[in-house]
Amino acid sequence: MAPSDHIPRRSLHSPDIFFMVVAAAAPLAAVVGNGALGTLLGNGAGMPGAYLIAGLVLILFAIGFVKMSPYVKSGGAFYAYIRQGLGGFAGGAAAYVALLVYLVMVVGSVAGMGFFCNIFLAEVFGLDVSWKLISILCLIVTGVVGYREITLGARLLAILLSLEIVVLLVLALAVFSPGSGAEVSLTSFSPATVFSGNFGVAIMFAFVSFLGFESAAIYSEEARDGTRTVARALIAAVLFIAIFYAISMWSVVSAFGPDKVAAAAAENPGTLVYRAFGLFTPGIFVMLAEALMVTSALAATIALHNAAARYVLALSRERMLPAGLGRLHDRMGSPHLASLTVSVITGLIVLGFILGDADPLMTVLSASFGLAALGIAILQAVTSAAVMTFFLRRGRDTGQKPLDLAIASVATLCLAAIAVLILSNYAVLTGSLGLLDYAPWLIPLAAVLGALLHGPGRRDTGEAR
Q1: Distance of alpha carbon 237 from the chain centroid
Q2: Looking at the domain assignment, is residue 242 inside a domain?
Q3: pLDDT one-digit tens code per residue, 423-462
Q4: How many CB atoms are closer than 10 A to CB 67?
Q5: From residue 222, how far is each of 219, 228, 310 by CA, in Å?
Q6: Would the CA dihedral through 241, 260, 170, 105 be positive or negative?
Q7: Coil, strand, or helix at residue 8?
Q8: Cα–Cα distance, 255 to 48 (Å, whole number)
């Protein structure tokens, strides 16, 4: 068999993976969408603090995740770690849950692209282009980029991500500059404010904003320096996302004032951040922020598509999907067949929503990301438990210390609590959309299917090589 059928080309550096991870989180979209909704429905001015708490929990998770990385050789991320720590059947269940999560995230991101681009074209150019047409075009562009060599996607995402980071920094600098007139205080980070209102809803929206950060591990086989490159990228991405979200949302709170930001969000949460730009920056930056929402959605779609394709690639190698999907392109070294598979599946789902005339924001995006948030919280909790179990079983061989086990234990408990909070507030995230409120049942169904397909004779232990 040709070498290209086995080993992807090691072409990715830490910055490439960093951009993939941060772009998957879509910083501008997270602040404009999740941050504003968390402010309105959650803890008001305490939303910046909620971002820091979510980031702290995920950093604890990432510490164990990275420490176990040298002992996990598969590119399957969550499922590979769970299989290593808890056995093959648990790993098989996690594999299909992870694949479900990433597929629905692609669907939601495509719908978001259609929604935000429709608004931008209407307000800037006076064009009324249906979100349905835009979403179809987004699927085509994403499919082409995913089909080609992975560094093409990384470079494109780096450009788009840099622009949206710059525009949010402009807002922060304008608000926090001396003489701006903004009501700047540390109220947003005080415990009384952070845990006020509906903290469960706030932490849910904060957690949704980090979706996809662990996807760094999926690129381990394509990284220049293997797990070391992935570890650097993962820790850097979590730190950056947490701090950047908190500062960006703090600037929005300060723009309106801690006592008035909730009321401002109630007027229209979708324009809260744009109005903050309007208050403290020239009008060009409002338009730029609206335009970059489109590129943010596109960047997220590309990154999530790439992550989903690599799950398909990994599962095909584990014989949990047809083996042919694990082939790599002879010239580009990309997982072209896995990418095409993701394009077809997500395209059919989006087409179903289009034919059903669904609302792209309140139905497609909300329902899909609500399901994804729950699935990833569960997967992260189980992964952290797997890390803890693995080091308890092989602690002497790996040289792990009691502190490492303590961190993994705390991470497991915190992530389990977040999963419970997300499930209890799921209707808030989806907008109580009837049958879609039962979407969480897809997670246990996927888990059962994955465990069954893992079956006797599969690799159950995933022992380190």
Answers
A1: 12
A2: yes
A3: 887 777 665 556 777 888 999 999 999 998 875 444 444 4
A4: 19
A5: 5, 12, 11
A6: positive
A7: coil
A8: 13
Instruction: Choose among 301, 32, 360, 304: nearest CA to 164.
Output: 32
Give the residue from 296, 382, 463 showing the smallest Cα distance to 98: 382
What is the domain count for the chain? 1
Could you give the percent of the chain with pLDDT greater than 90? 34
Give the pair of three-digit tokens for residue 312: 């398909």
Question: d(Cα 18, Cα 41) in Å, to the nearest integer?
Answer: 31
pLDDT greater than 70 at residue 1: no
Q: How far, in Å, CA of 311 to CA of 96, rounded?
A: 9
Q: Which residues pair with 223 in a beta bridge?
A: 12
Domain that holds residue 22: 3-454
Q: Stretch 313-341: mean pLDDT, rounded?
A: 81
What span, in angstroms and rounded, lies between the C-alpha atoms of 129 and 120?
10
Looking at residue 209, which CATH number applies to its domain?
Answer: 1.20.1740.10
Residue 356 has pLDDT above 50, yes or no: yes
Angle between helices 88-120 and 283-317 in degrees, nearest 10:
150
Please give the Cα distance from 465 to 453 (Å, whole number).
24
465 within domain boundaries: no
Number of neighbours of residue 186 by Cβ within 10 angstroms = 11
Q: Indicate the pLDDT class of residue 20, thresholds 50, 70 and 90.
A: low
Question: Counting beta carbons within 10 angstroms of the beta carbon of residue 456, is it exposed (0 to 12), middle (13 to 18) or buried (19 or more)?
Answer: exposed
Higher pLDDT, 28 or 463: 28
Do the domain assignments include residue 309? yes
The answer to whether residues 310 and 106 touch, using CB atoms and an 8 Å cutoff, is no
DSSP reduced 3-state for 12: strand
Report the alpha-carbon distance of residue 147 to residue 82 in Å, rounded. Answer: 29
Structure tokens at 38: 């968390």
Provide the mean pLDDT of the chain: 82
Q: Six-digit token pair at 447?
A: 């888990």
Whole-number Cα distances in Å, 176 to 171, 221, 273, 281? 9, 43, 15, 12
pLDDT of residue 259: 94
Neighbours of 206 (CB within 10 A): 30
3 state SS of 7: coil
Nearest to 138 by CA among 19, 305, 312: 305
Instruction: Answer yes or no: is 158 within a domain.
Output: yes
By C-alpha distance, which of 237, 250, 146 is closest to 190?
250
